[in-house]
Every structure is written in structure tokens, then in C-alpha cells.
């Protein structure tokens, strides 16, 4: 035998101290994760991470308008900045890491092609007020997106500019209000009917537009109580706001009856389109009698959620509401595209303008890139796979957990209540936090409000069967542990996350919303 | 389809596990008349290459700011964004995460929001700032509504120096709430007219500085007048970089700052997504719209951050919420925060001075042209000029020569009768050569 | 001390009624983080929303158990909302109201009746 290098590292872990040894690290480090100070707590006062030429003016022509006092903005060199933000990033869960089953939020894969397209200089480096002759391609993109959205929804018109779902709701209700005003009925129609299961934005928006909100009851099978709705509809009702598929993850079976009754009463049907992902390509809201519906481009059409935004919430409109759409909009003249920026110019009935400029162009590009990639056949498959995945989860968990509405299929999300946790002393919150220790982001909890201890699981179509099986396996083990009374595992969870449970009471009682220089510190600001 | 992981075999196995015969069984609740039997009439699945070609063809039809002499502003500004910014915001953990509702696994987002809030508060000179709204214009609308809640009054006095799109967006929303607006006539020094209009029924006064004509104003006197009448002063800032050179709104007595943060970290993007800055006084906190991130500790006593004060928000307050806003501008905040951290105070002040320098140089070059009158006396990086011709025509003619000369005021407000006014902006990206090209071409167009 | 079915309490001293929320309500809310007390001088009709109490995850309107004018609000709650949890039926009072109609108290429950009412919930 020839000589071998026998000097090497140990290859079995049993020479390490046992697992109970929990010496606190000096850096707060847990594996690769370190505590990261705020930028304000470093030594960056006076430092900068950009190299700029020396200005030839000192601003003295501005006299006493010039800011003299310290502003309070630390600077970081480029490597410091990179490290700071990358370290922070590692404390986040993300759809790129694992399933992110937040019901109602549609956390699906975000294709990077969309990011690449949105960054083309021809879209990202153009000014909203350039002459229209110099942005014909941008207007073409908006027109093409409009065509896709109206075709997929079976609606004749779309207002692109709303900047998020709630902004879209505002747009839809303002159009409804304008339509009633045009008919001279606004003064009498001051109520908006909203089911108890609705997203909070629905009643908030209705109130924002000056309507009083009347709640509509829900049936035992998780749908709008049509009899209750009928009894509340009347000449004083401006609109109903119904989410379909609804927030319980169910399709409103009586949707035709709901829209018929609504229209008979002279009211309009606003549909919250947050859950459009479940039906895209298979059902057109226009065929259901919808008058206005926002589409969260950051949900169904996969523009990234980005930690809470930006989103986009274009609103499709029926024939009856189309004339009231806000400025701006694009017209294909046959000889090029024209952006109508002033509602007075073309349509006297338009209700105004919702924001400066043209809305979320960057999101339009991403959404169109996503739609074109799928095509009409792919989008239909999106809805089918999203619904299939949710039903698969429901089927595989329903023996251990309690589905809120066990009868019949769900749509794109599976809703459980906390009935199955009864007697365990473990709450929905505890269960959710224990999921974190298994490497999963919890589902939506305690929403919709109509279901006790709600757990709303939306897998989306971009989870593979293998990932779903892994998730289901973990959920089953956890559920069994809960039933077996392993309370500690839940009450203390999460144990392995970057942070343990945070004290929200403390944060709310005496809010600290910014860094403030500690007393006696030498910081510049 | 490349984004859909399920195979035909998977689907079959899963349907079997569910106990369904076909996918149609899962759509039984859809009324038959509404079931589409085939894909709608749109193009079918397309590969990455095809999509890239189609979209690149559209992009290629647009004249980009970076490829031509470029002087457009009026609420959107071309600045250089360091490469680090765009790299970091595309990290999976930032790009593909949701609103940080599970703080244990969202400290990255929460901490940068806390840093963002601190930066915005310090930049605006205000005690507190929220975690952003959609953009500057919607921030202004929210500010006016908040002022009516705080003062229990119903009228907003809006200076003629405020960006007409901001005014229109605000009016559209607040009129629906029954709030009255009094919009004063546009003028380069419109702020001078404001004080006389403040009365006992005024909920708030809205002024913009630098205003839409570029004029930088000390609004201290307006703040005093408003507050003497029990009204709030809302200061609108559409060019965030200006606060690196000019007195902050807080220093001048603002009660609310509604700003556009696009200039820091964010591209022009043809108007969006942008980032609404919203800052105010501590005592008004409970009446503010939007999200806040606050400091707290975890159960081990380690510092951490959570979303807080959420009882003001729609998901809890529903029809009694201070606003219906839910989604904010998260990723744009991150871009803002990273860019601002790279700049630091030193870099920001330098950047602001460079902007001012380029604007002064542009003004000097244009002022020398026969027939051009510079209207704005004191400005940051944008000023208004009066032309002897219709400004829209002039801009179109220059655009045909590959020069984006600025924004005709009449594009924003045609009814104002200011058809000869052109708004010209310069930033650190403006080259001396571009200024020469603009001046030369403008002189020719005016002489023709 | 008398109670309403909405879990407010009222205690009368002359024509001044001190009002707050019951121990049961305070416990159900969880950690109180903010109380919006009414402005002194404002008048409320019985049943009007006159204050708001917030926990981290909930905001509840508090209804005036009697009609009258607010003569004092418990300013201490601004800095110490936790008092509502610590002493809901004592130091955690919300406001003192000069009542306009003492007979309105007649319809309210005494402690025993309120406890019996809670038992039915």
C-alpha cells in the first residue's frame, strides 16, 4: 500500500459537544445568520458609497432656502451596503425558497423573464410626459395588455391606472357612483352590500367613497345568502361587492341569481377579483354579470409581491360602466396609439383621474410577459392546476384537520377551521408558528373572519407534486403532534427562525417607528 | 408550459387522490352557461425567446431618456441609480416575499422598512414617516383626507403651484368624500396667493416646493398662517433629491409631507411604479394612512421589528379604516433605502448640488436665446421658460430631432392658457454637450 | 355599578356618571394598546359610539351607556393603556359624563344580572 495522507479532518460529528450545548455566540450568529445593526448604528456618518464629481456651485444663489442643519443620513461604502442588505435578505422567507401558501395572496413563481423585460430601457427609461410620438411602443404595450385583460374577462373595457387591488376597488366604486350620478340616482343610492366574508378593503373602500356598508349574511355552506341579499337590495343600494371565487375558496354557485337580482334592483355588481387565478381561462366574469372587477396583476399575473408592493389593480368594466372610466387611457387610432390624458378631452362622463401619469407601467410589462408566455391555453391550465393543487391538499389533510366546508370541491384554496384543535390548548397561531420551524411559511390565519380560527391554504399552480407532498407530510406530522399533546413544540414556536415570537403589544403601546440617536451619543445626527 | 410543474401523470394521480374523475369535477360549482369549453381567443403558449422578441420590439419603438438629450421632469426625474440597488432588490428573498405578516421570518423586509421610515423622517424633517403609499399624488390625496379627519373641517386650499395631476387625483378622491377643494390659479410664484385664502373652515393648505414651475419657496409663513387658523399645512415634494439642498418641509413647519420618492433608487418607468412618501407629526399618528413598522423584542429579548398600529388599517377597521390602502410600494422603498444608504448625507448633498449646477447651466444657456424668458427665479433642478411659440409644437419639433426638451405646461393643464410655458429639468445625468445641443436646436426652432 | 349588554359599565355619583368597559370585555380584548377617549364638552346620546379601545389585532367602539355631556376624560390612558387591563372597573375608566336622564340607568344590569348574562354567552 502506498503512502496516504492520514492527516485530515474528522469526518464524523461525534467529537462535537452534544446538542444541549447552547453557548451564545458573540455575533448573535445562528449558522450563517448574524444579527445586523441598523445603518444608523454604524460608523457611516460622513461616509458615502458613490463617487460624484465635485459640484461647481455651493447653492449660495438660493440664499436662506439652503438646508444647513445635519439631515441624519448615514452612508455606506458599496461593499458595506451590499453586505448589510444581503444579510437582511437572508432573514426573509420567499417563494423562491419554498411553498408560500398564504391564502388570498396567490404567492406563485415569479418568472425572471418578466423582470428582464421590465428592465428593457425602452420601458424603464422613458418619461411619463415624453411626447407621445416617442413612446408608441409603450402605448402599444398598454393597448396589448388591455386586449388580453378584456378578452380573458369578457368585459368590454379596462382602466389600467389603479395602483393596487384596493385602488382598483376605489376605481370601480367611483365608476359606479358616477353612473348613478349620471342617472340622477346617486342621492337615493347610498348603500353598498358586502358579505361578511369579504376582504377588509371592500368595506373600507365603500366607506372611502362615501357609502354606508351593509353586511350580507353567509350560508352554512360558505356562500352569499341570496335570500338575505335579496331582502337588502332595493332602490337605496348602489352596488354589491362580492369576491368570486370567494374568500372561503368557494365558487358562488348562485352567482347568476346574485347578478340578476342586483341588476333588477338597479344596482351594479362589483366583483373583487383577488381570486381570479382560480378561474382564469375557464370562466369569464363578463359572463357572470359582473360590472366591474379589479385584477391584482401581482397575484394572478405574477408580478412579484416585493415584500408588500408595488402592485397593480387594473379594473375591467361592463358596457354600462365603461363610459365612466378614469383618465388616462390608450386609443388605437389605426395610425398609431394615442394616450388620452384628460378626461374632458374625449369623454365627458369619465370620473376623473386616480393618480399622476399612467399607472404601474413596470407591472404592465411584467404581467404581459407572463400572459404571453402562458398563452390562452397555458392560462387555462394555470386555473386548473391551481384548483387541483388546492383540492389535493384538502383531500390529503381532511382526515386530520377539519375543512371549514367539507362538502364539494374547493377552488384554488383550501380552508380549514380550528375545530380539530379543540381540547389541545394549541391555537391556529401556535400551529402556524410551528410550521415555520418546518421551513414553511404559514398559511393565512384568522381570515376569513367568518370561520373560527381560519387556516386558508393557497398553494398556487406553480408547486410541483413533490413539493406539495413534502408540505403535506410536514403538515400531517405537525397535526398529529398537536393531537398527541406535544404542546411545547407549538407554544414556543418558532424555535429555529431568525427570531422567536415578537412582542406586538409592546410595539403598539409605545410605538418606536424610527431610529433615534441615543442620549449622549456622538453620532452626527 | 415551463412555469407549470405538474405532469399529466401527476394530475391523474392527484385527481385519483381527490376522488375526482376529471378536472371538470372540480369546477362543478360554476354555472354551466359560464363554463368556457376551450381557451379564449388569444395567442397560445410562447417560449421565452418569442416573448422576449415581441416585447423588445415594442420597447425599441420608444426613445429612451438615456439615449438622447433629455430635459423632462414635472414630477418624474432621471437620476443615476447605482448598480447595487437593482441587484439587491432582485434577490429572491426581497423580490418574492409577501407583506411581512410573519415577523419571525420577515425581519429583512421589516428592518429595511424601519430604516426607510427613519430616512424619510430625517429627510423630510418630520418626526414620523410611514412605510410608503403608492406614489406622491395618492399621498397628497390621503393627506387631504387625513387633514379633514384631524380638523373635522371640510375644505382644502390648494396652491396653484401644485402639480396638476396631483390636484386632479386628489380632487377625484376627496370630492367623493364630500370634501371641498379650492384650487388657486397657476403661477410661478403661486404660493404668494395662498395665505389670503385660509379661513376658519380650512382643513388644510397644500403647497408644493419646489413647485411645478420649479420655484423653491420658504413656506414657513404659510405654515404659521395655516396653524393660526387651526388648519394643517401639507407640503408636497415631487423631487426628493431637492431635500438634500433645500430646507426641509419639517423645518418650515409642515404638518404633513406628501412626497414622491422615485428620484431616489427608482427608474422613470413611464410613470410607475413609484413610491409615496408620507410623513407627519407624532400627535397625528393615529389618523395617518398606510403601514408602519415598529421596534420591539422577541421572546428571547432580542430586538426585532413588526408591523404595528394596524388597527387603523382596513383589515381590522374595515369601513372605519383611515384608508383602504393595503399594498404599498415595498420593493421601491427598498430601492430608495439602498440608494440613500449608498449616498449618505455627504453623497446626497453632493448629488443635490450637481443637480442644481446642471439646472443653472441649462438656464444660462437657454436664457441667452432670443425670445426665451426664464420665469422661475429660484429653483432646484427645474425651471419654467416662456417661449415666443406654442411649447407643445416646439417640443414636438425638437423630439423629431431626437431631443426631449421638457414638458409643456399645457400638457398638464391645457385650460390654464399657459401654452407658451415649457418646464425644463436637468439632473446629474445631464451632459454639458446635451445642454449645448438643446440650446442650439431651440434657437433654430424659434428662429424658423 | 351597572352594566350594559355591550359590556360597558357606569357608576353614578350625583349626576356624574363614570363609564368604562367591564373586566370581561377587557379580558376578551387582550392587551389594550390604545384608547381614544372622547373630547370634553361633547355630548352623546345613549348608544352612540363615544370612545374606541384597541388591542393589537382589534379595534372596538365603546358605546355611551347613558346620554349626556363629557365633563372629563381619563387622560392617563394615553400613556398607560394597560391600565384598562389592570383595573378595568377602576382606574381604567374612560370618561365622566354629566347625565341628562338618570332614568336611563334603570334598564341596565347590576353586577349579579351582568354575571348571569355573561354565563349565557
UniProtKB/TrEMBL annotation, chain A:
<dbReference type="InterPro" id="IPR049316">
    <property type="entry name" value="GDC-P_C"/>
</dbReference>
<feature type="domain" description="Aminotransferase class V">
    <location>
        <begin position="181"/>
        <end position="306"/>
    </location>
</feature>
<comment type="function">
    <text>The glycine cleavage system catalyzes the degradation of glycine. The P protein binds the alpha-amino group of glycine through its pyridoxal phosphate cofactor; CO(2) is released and the remaining methylamine moiety is then transferred to the lipoamide cofactor of the H protein.</text>
</comment>
<protein>
    <recommendedName>
        <fullName>glycine dehydrogenase (aminomethyl-transferring)</fullName>
        <ecNumber>1.4.4.2</ecNumber>
    </recommendedName>
</protein>
<feature type="compositionally biased region" description="Polar residues">
    <location>
        <begin position="1"/>
        <end position="17"/>
    </location>
</feature>
<keyword id="KW-0663">Pyridoxal phosphate</keyword>
<dbReference type="InterPro" id="IPR020581">
    <property type="entry name" value="GDC_P"/>
</dbReference>
<dbReference type="InterPro" id="IPR015424">
    <property type="entry name" value="PyrdxlP-dep_Trfase"/>
</dbReference>
<dbReference type="InterPro" id="IPR000192">
    <property type="entry name" value="Aminotrans_V_dom"/>
</dbReference>
<feature type="region of interest" description="Disordered">
    <location>
        <begin position="1"/>
        <end position="24"/>
    </location>
</feature>
<dbReference type="Pfam" id="PF21478">
    <property type="entry name" value="GcvP2_C"/>
</dbReference>
<dbReference type="Pfam" id="PF00266">
    <property type="entry name" value="Aminotran_5"/>
</dbReference>
<dbReference type="InterPro" id="IPR015421">
    <property type="entry name" value="PyrdxlP-dep_Trfase_major"/>
</dbReference>
<dbReference type="InterPro" id="IPR015422">
    <property type="entry name" value="PyrdxlP-dep_Trfase_small"/>
</dbReference>
<keyword id="KW-0560">Oxidoreductase</keyword>
UniProtKB/TrEMBL annotation, chain B:
<dbReference type="Pfam" id="PF02347">
    <property type="entry name" value="GDC-P"/>
</dbReference>
<dbReference type="InterPro" id="IPR015421">
    <property type="entry name" value="PyrdxlP-dep_Trfase_major"/>
</dbReference>
<comment type="function">
    <text>The glycine cleavage system catalyzes the degradation of glycine. The P protein binds the alpha-amino group of glycine through its pyridoxal phosphate cofactor; CO(2) is released and the remaining methylamine moiety is then transferred to the lipoamide cofactor of the H protein.</text>
</comment>
<dbReference type="InterPro" id="IPR049315">
    <property type="entry name" value="GDC-P_N"/>
</dbReference>
<protein>
    <recommendedName>
        <fullName>Probable glycine dehydrogenase (decarboxylating) subunit 1</fullName>
        <ecNumber>1.4.4.2</ecNumber>
    </recommendedName>
</protein>
<keyword id="KW-0560">Oxidoreductase</keyword>
<dbReference type="InterPro" id="IPR015422">
    <property type="entry name" value="PyrdxlP-dep_Trfase_small"/>
</dbReference>
<dbReference type="InterPro" id="IPR015424">
    <property type="entry name" value="PyrdxlP-dep_Trfase"/>
</dbReference>
<dbReference type="InterPro" id="IPR023010">
    <property type="entry name" value="GcvPA"/>
</dbReference>
<comment type="similarity">
    <text>Belongs to the GcvP family. N-terminal subunit subfamily.</text>
</comment>
<comment type="subunit">
    <text>The glycine cleavage system is composed of four proteins: P, T, L and H. In this organism, the P 'protein' is a heterodimer of two subunits.</text>
</comment>
<feature type="domain" description="Glycine cleavage system P-protein N-terminal">
    <location>
        <begin position="1"/>
        <end position="438"/>
    </location>
</feature>
Automatic annotation (TrEMBL), chain C:
<dbReference type="InterPro" id="IPR002930">
    <property type="entry name" value="GCV_H"/>
</dbReference>
<dbReference type="InterPro" id="IPR033753">
    <property type="entry name" value="GCV_H/Fam206"/>
</dbReference>
<keyword id="KW-0450">Lipoyl</keyword>
<comment type="function">
    <text>The glycine cleavage system catalyzes the degradation of glycine. The H protein shuttles the methylamine group of glycine from the P protein to the T protein.</text>
</comment>
<dbReference type="Pfam" id="PF01597">
    <property type="entry name" value="GCV_H"/>
</dbReference>
<dbReference type="InterPro" id="IPR003016">
    <property type="entry name" value="2-oxoA_DH_lipoyl-BS"/>
</dbReference>
<protein>
    <recommendedName>
        <fullName>Glycine cleavage system H protein</fullName>
    </recommendedName>
</protein>
<comment type="similarity">
    <text>Belongs to the GcvH family.</text>
</comment>
<comment type="subunit">
    <text>The glycine cleavage system is composed of four proteins: P, T, L and H.</text>
</comment>
<feature type="domain" description="Lipoyl-binding">
    <location>
        <begin position="16"/>
        <end position="98"/>
    </location>
</feature>
<dbReference type="InterPro" id="IPR017453">
    <property type="entry name" value="GCV_H_sub"/>
</dbReference>
<feature type="modified residue" description="N6-lipoyllysine">
    <location>
        <position position="57"/>
    </location>
</feature>
<dbReference type="InterPro" id="IPR011053">
    <property type="entry name" value="Single_hybrid_motif"/>
</dbReference>
<dbReference type="InterPro" id="IPR000089">
    <property type="entry name" value="Biotin_lipoyl"/>
</dbReference>
Amino acid at each position: 500500500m502506498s503512502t496516504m495522507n492520514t492527516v485530515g479532518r474528522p469526518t464524523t460529528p461525534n467529537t462535537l459537544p452534544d446538542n444541549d450545548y447552547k453557548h451564545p455566540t458573540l455575533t448573535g450568529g445562528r449558522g450563517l445568520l448574524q444579527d445586523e445593526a441598523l445603518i444608523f448604528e454604524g460608523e457611516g456618518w460622513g461616509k458615502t458609497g458613490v463617487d460624484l464629481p465635485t459640484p461647481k456651485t455651493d447653492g449660495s444663489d438660493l440664499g436662506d432656502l439652503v438646508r444647513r442643519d445635519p439631515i441624519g443620513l448615514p452612508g455606506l461604502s458599496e461593499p458595506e451596503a451590499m453586505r448589510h442588505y444581503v444579510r437582511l435578505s437572508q432573514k426573509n422567507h420567499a417563494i423562491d425558497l419554498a411553498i408560500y401558501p398564504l391564502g388570498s395572496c396567490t404567492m406563485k413563481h415569479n418568472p425572471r423573464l418578466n423582470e428582464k423585460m421590465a428592465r428593457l430601457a425602452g420601458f424603464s427609461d422613458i418619461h411619463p410626459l415624453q411626447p407621445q410620438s416617442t413612446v408608441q411602443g409603450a402605448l402599444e404595450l398598454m393597448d396589448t395588455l388591455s386586449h388580453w385583460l378584456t378578452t380573458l374577462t369578457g368585459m368590454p373595457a379596462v382602466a389600467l391606472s389603479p395602483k393596487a387591488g384596493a385602488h382598483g376597488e376605489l376605481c370601480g366604486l367611483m365608476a359606479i357612483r358616477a353612473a348613478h350620478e349620471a342617472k340622477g340616482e346617486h342621492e337615493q343610492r347610498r348603500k353598498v352590500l358586502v358579505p361578511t366574508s369579504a376582504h377588509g378593503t371592500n368595506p373600507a373602500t365603500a366607506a372611502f367613497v362615501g357609502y354606508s356598508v351593509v353586511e350580507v349574511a353567509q350560508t352554512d355552506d360558505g356562500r352569499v345568502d341570496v335570500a338575505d341579499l335579496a331582502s337588502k337590495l332595493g332602490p337605496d343600494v348602489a352596488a354589491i361587492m362580492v369576491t368570486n371565487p370567494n374568500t372561503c375558496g368557494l365558487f358562488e354557485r348562485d352567482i347568476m341569481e346574485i347578478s340578476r337580482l342586483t341588476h333588477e334592483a338597479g344596482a351594479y355588481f362589483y366583483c373583487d377579483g383577488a381570486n381570479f387565478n382560480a378561474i382564469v381561462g375557464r370562466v369569464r366574469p363578463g359572463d357572470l354579470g359582473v360590472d366591474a372587477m379589479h385584477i391584482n396583476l401581482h397575484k394572478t399575473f405574477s408580478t412579484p409581491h416585493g415584500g408588500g408592493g408595488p402592485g397593480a389593480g387594473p379594473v375591467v368594466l361592463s358596457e354600462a360602466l365603461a363610459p365612466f372610466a378614469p383618465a388616462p387611457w390608450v386609443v388605437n387610432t389605426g395610425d398609431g396609439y394615442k394616450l388620452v390624458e384628460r378626461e374632458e378631452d374625449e369623454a365627458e362622463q369619465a370620473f376623473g383621474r386616480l393618480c399622476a401619469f399612467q399607472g404601474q407601467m413596470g407591472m404592465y410589462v411584467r404581467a404581459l410577459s407572463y400572459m404571453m408566455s402562458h398563452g390562452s391555453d397555458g392560462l387555462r391550465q394555470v386555473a386548473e392546476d391551481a384548483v387541483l393543487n388546492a383540492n389535493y391538499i384538502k383531500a390529503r389533510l381532511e382526515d386530520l384537520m377539519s375543512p371549514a366546508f367539507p362538502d364539494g370541491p374547493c377552488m384554488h384554496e383550501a380552508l380549514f377551521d380550528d375545530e380539530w384543535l379543540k381540547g389541545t390548548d394549541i391555537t391556529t397561531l401556535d400551529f402556524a408558528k410551528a410550521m415555520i420551524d418546518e421551513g414553511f411559511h404559514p398559511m393565512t390565519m384568522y381570515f376569513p373572519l367568518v370561520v373560527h380560527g381560519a387556516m386558508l391554504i393557497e398553494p398556487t399552480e406553480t408547486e410541483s407534486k413533490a413539493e406539495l407532498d413534502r408540505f403535506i407530510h410536514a403538515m400531517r406530522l405537525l397535526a398529529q403532534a398537536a393531537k398527541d399533546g406535544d404542546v411545547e413544540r407549538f407554544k414556543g414556536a418558532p424555535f429555529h427562525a431568525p427570531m422567536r415570537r415578537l412582542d406586538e403589544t409592546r410595539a403598539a403601546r409605545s410605538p418606536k417607528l424610527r431610529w433615534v440617536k441615543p442620549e449622549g451619543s456622538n453620532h452626527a445626527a | 408550459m415551463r412555469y407549470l410543474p405538474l405532469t399529466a401523470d401527476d394530475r391523474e394521480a392527484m385527481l385519483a387522490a381527490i376522488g375526482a374523475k376529471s378536472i371538470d369535477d372540480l369546477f362543478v360549482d360554476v354555472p354551466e352557461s359560464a363554463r368556457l369549453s376551450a381557451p379564449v381567443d388569444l395567442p397560445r403558449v410562447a417560449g421565452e425567446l418569442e416573448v422576449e422578441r415581441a416585447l423588445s420590439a415594442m420597447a425599441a419603438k420608444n426613445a429612451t431618456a438615456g439615449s438622447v438629450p433629455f430635459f423632462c421632469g414635472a414630477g418624474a426625474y432621471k437620476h443615476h441609480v447605482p448598480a447595487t440597488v437593482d441587484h439587491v432588490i432582485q434577490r429572491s428573498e426581497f423580490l418574492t416575499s409577501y407583506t411581512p405578516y410573519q415577523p419571525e421570518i420577515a425581519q429583512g423586509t421589516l428592518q429595511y422598512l424601519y430604516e426607510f421610515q427613519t430616512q424619510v423622517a430625517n429627510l423630510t424633517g418630520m418626526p414620523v414617516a410611514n412605510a410608503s403609499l403608492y406614489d406622491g399624488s395618492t399621498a397628497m390625496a390621503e393627506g387631504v383626507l387625513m387633514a379633514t379627519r384631524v380638523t373635522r373641517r371640510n375644505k382644502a386650499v390648494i396652491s396653484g403651484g401644485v402639480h396638476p395631476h396631483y390636484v386632479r387625483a386628489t380632487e377625484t378622491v376627496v370630492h367623493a368624500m364630500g370634501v371641498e377643494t379650492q384650487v388657486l390659479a397657476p403661477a410661478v410664484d403661486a404660493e404668494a396667493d395662498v395665505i389670503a385664502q385660509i379661513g376658519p373652515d380650512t382643513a388644510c393648505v397644500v403647497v408644493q416646493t419646489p413647485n411645478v414651475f420649479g420655484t423653491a419657496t420658504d413656506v414657513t409663513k404659510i405654515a404659521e398662517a395655516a396653524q393660526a387658523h387651526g388648519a394643517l399645512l401639507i407640503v408636497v415634494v415631487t423631487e426628493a433629491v431637492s431635500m438634500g439642498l433645500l430646507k426641509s418641509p419639517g423645518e418650515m413647519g409642515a404638518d404633513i409631507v406628501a412626497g414622491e420618492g422615485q428620484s431616489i433608487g427608482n427608474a422613470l418607468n413611464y410613470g410607475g411604479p413609484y413610491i409615496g412618501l408620507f410623513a407627519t407629526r407624532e400627535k397625528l399618528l393615529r389618523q395617518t394612512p398606510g403601514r408602519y413598522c415598529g421596534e420591539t423584542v422577541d421572546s428571547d429579548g432580542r430586538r426585532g421589528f413588526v408591523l404595528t398600529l394596524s388597527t387603523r388599517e382596513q383589515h381590522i377597521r374595515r369601513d372605519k379604516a383611515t384608508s383602504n390602502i393595503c399594498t404599498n410600494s415595498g420593493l421601491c422603498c427598498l430601492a430608495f433605502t439602498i440608494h440613500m444608504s449608498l449616498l449618505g448625507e455627504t453623497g446626497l448633498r453632493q448629488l443635490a448640488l450637481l443637480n442644481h449646477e446642471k439646472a443653472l447651466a441649462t438656464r444660462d444657456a437657454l436664457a441667452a436665446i432670443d425670445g426665451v424668458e426664464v420665469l422661475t427665479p429660484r429653483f432646484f433642478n427645474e425651471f419654467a421658460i416662456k417661449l415666443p411659440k406654442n411649447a407643445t409644437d416646439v417640443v414636438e419639433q425638437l423630439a423629431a430631432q431626437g431631443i426631449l426638451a421638457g414638458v409643456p405646461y399645457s400638457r398638464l393643464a391645457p385650460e390654464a392658457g399657459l401654452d407658451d410655458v415649457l418646464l425644463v429639468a436637468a439632473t446629474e445625468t445631464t451632459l454639458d454637450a446635451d445642454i449645448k445641443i438643446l440650446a442650439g436646436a431651440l434657437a433654430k426652432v424659434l428662429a424658423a | 355599578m351597572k352594566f350594559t349588554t355591550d359590556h360597558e359599565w357606569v357608576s353614578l355619583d350625583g349626576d356624574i356618571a363614570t363609564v368604562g368597559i367591564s373586566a370581561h370585555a377587557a379580558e376578551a380584548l387582550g392587551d389594550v394598546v390604545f384608547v381614544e377617549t372622547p373630547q370634553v364638552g361633547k355630548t352623546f346620546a345613549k348608544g352612540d359610539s363615544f370612545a374606541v379601545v384597541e388591542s393589537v389585532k382589534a379595534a372596538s367602539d365603546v358605546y355611551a351607556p347613558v346620554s349626556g355631556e363629557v365633563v372629563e376624560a381619563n387622560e392617563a390612558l394615553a400613556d398607560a393603556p394597560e391600565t384598562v387591563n389592570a383595573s378595568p372597573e377602576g382606574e381604567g375608566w374612560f370618561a365622566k359624563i354629566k347625565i341628562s336622564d338618570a332614568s336611563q340607568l334603570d334598564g341596565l344590569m347590576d353586577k349579579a344580572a351582568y354575571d348571569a348574562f355573561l354565563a349565557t354567552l
